[in-house]
Amino acid sequence: MKWVPISIFSFVLSCQLSTEPYKEGKFIYDKQCSNCHGINFEGLAKLYPAFEANKLSEFNRRKLVCLVKHGSLVNDTTNLNSVMPSFEKLSEIQICNVLNYIFEKHQLSPLFDLEEIRLQLLECKG
Fold first, then answer.
1. Is 112 in contact with 92 (CB distance < 8 Å)?
2. How many Å apart are CA 69 and CA 87, to the nearest integer?
C-alpha cells in the first residue's frame, strides 16, 4: 500500500505537474462552461462574455477565481443581466486546471498554481 501516498501526492499536485496539465481543465470547460462561453471561447451574443486574451489579462485574478467558485450577477453596458452560476462543487485543483486551460489557450501567463487558488478562495470568503 505504499503507492497510495504517492498517488494522492501526484493528484494533489496535478495542477502543476501533470503530464497532460490541461486535460481535466478542458473536460471541465467543455462540460461546465462551453454552453455559455462557447466551445471556442466565443461567448453567446451579449449574454455571456467571450474569453478574449486582452480582457482576461486585464481581469483581476482574484475575482476570476471567486467568480468561478461562487458565481455572480453580471451587469453590462447594455443593461442585460446574466447570471454566472456558482461551481461550489469544483475542487481547488479543478478550478486551477480549468483556469489554466483557458489561460493556456489564450497564451496568457502567469498560469495559476494550487497555492494561489487556495489563498484567493480564502479571500473570497472574507
1. no
2. 5
Per residue in 12-30, is it b (16+ CB within 10 Å) or e — as a string? eebbeebeebbebbbebbe
CB 57 within 8 A of CB 65: no
User: Cis before residue 85, ω within 30 degrees of 0?
Assistant: no
Per DSSP bridges, beta strands 72-75 and 81-84 are antiparallel
Which amino acid would we find at residue 8?
I
Report the CATH superfamily, name and number, of domain 3-125.
Answer: Cytochrome c-like domain (1.10.760.10)
Spatial separation of the C-alpha atoms in residues 14 and 9, rounded to whole Å: 9
- Report domain extents, the chain: 3-125
Looking at residue 57, the DSSP 8-state letter turns out to be: H
Rounded to two decimals, what is the model's pTM?
Answer: 0.78
Closest to 51 in 3D by CA, of 39, 61, 67, 63: 39
- pLDDT by residue (tens digit) across 43-85? 887 778 888 888 888 788 888 999 999 998 665 555 456 788 9
